[in-house]
Amino acid sequence: MGKAAGKGGAAGGKGNGSGAPQRSRAGGGASAARPVPPAPPRPAAGPSAPVTPGRIGLYVLLLVTGVLVAVAGTLVQAAWFPGGLLLALAAAAGLFHGGATATGTLAGALIPGAGWLVAVFILLSQVRPEGDFLFGAGTSSYLFLAGGLAVAVICATVAQRRAVGVPHGRVGG
Questions:
Q1: Which of 121, 31, 29 shows the shortest CA–CA distance to 71?
Q2: Closest CA to 77 of 126, 131, 148
Q3: Helix (H) or strand (E) holding 107
Q4: Which of 9-18, 25-34, 67-76 has the lowest mean pLDDT?
Q5: What is the pLDDT of residue 123?
Q6: Is the pLDDT of residue 9 over 50?
């Protein structure tokens, strides 16, 4: 066979006496290969995150903030149509993403989203005897409702992928 197939059966590989090839390390010289210790497991940030009084307080604060952002967005989105609508949706997105980032859980995005959704639907259904209500029957109101729901779903999906540990990068390569 010649010198191309060394003792370990691989071209140019060093043998360790057992017949299996041994990889050389960059700059390793003649030192023996040391096993690499496994990386410590990341703490689970999903549904198994510990429930503490501080975390419950943070969730209550996020719920109340979701209601306040919904009320403010309801008033702003109709006042300055294109800019007010974008400002209201950006505030909702900031709250949902910030809640997920602050808690490190999926609930951090869902709880303020639930507060926002309940507040918007309560404000949407309240009609005064005079016929006045906060939402007009225009495009802006529907865009605010649909856009807020879409932003909540997007932020919850991103938080869920982060909690599960899905690696960032391209799909398929």
A1: 121
A2: 148
A3: helix 107-125
A4: 9-18
A5: 79
A6: no
Structure-token pair, residue 139:
């495009």
Q: What are the extents of the domains in the chain? A: 53-164
| Alpha-carbon distance values, 115 to 59, 61, 79, 132 (Å) | 11, 10, 22, 23
**Contact in structure between 42 and 48 (CB atoms under 8 Å):** no
Report the pLDDT averaged over residues 86-113: 92
Give the integer Cα–Cα distance in Å for 164 and 55. Answer: 19
Tell me the three state secondary structure of residue 58: helix
Both tokens of 148, joined, read: 């807020």
Cα 81 to Cα 73, 130, 151, 152, 170: the distances in Å are: 11, 24, 19, 21, 37
Within 8 A by CB and 6+ apart from 144, the residues are 73, 74, 77, 85, 88, 89, 120
Structural contact between residues 48 and 104, judged by C-beta atoms closer than 8 angstroms: no
Asked whether 145 and 102 are in contact (CB, 8 A), the reply is no
Task: For residue 87, give the 3-state DSSP assignment.
Answer: helix
Contact 103, 47 (CB under 8 A): no
Whether the predicted pLDDT of 4 surpasses 80:
no
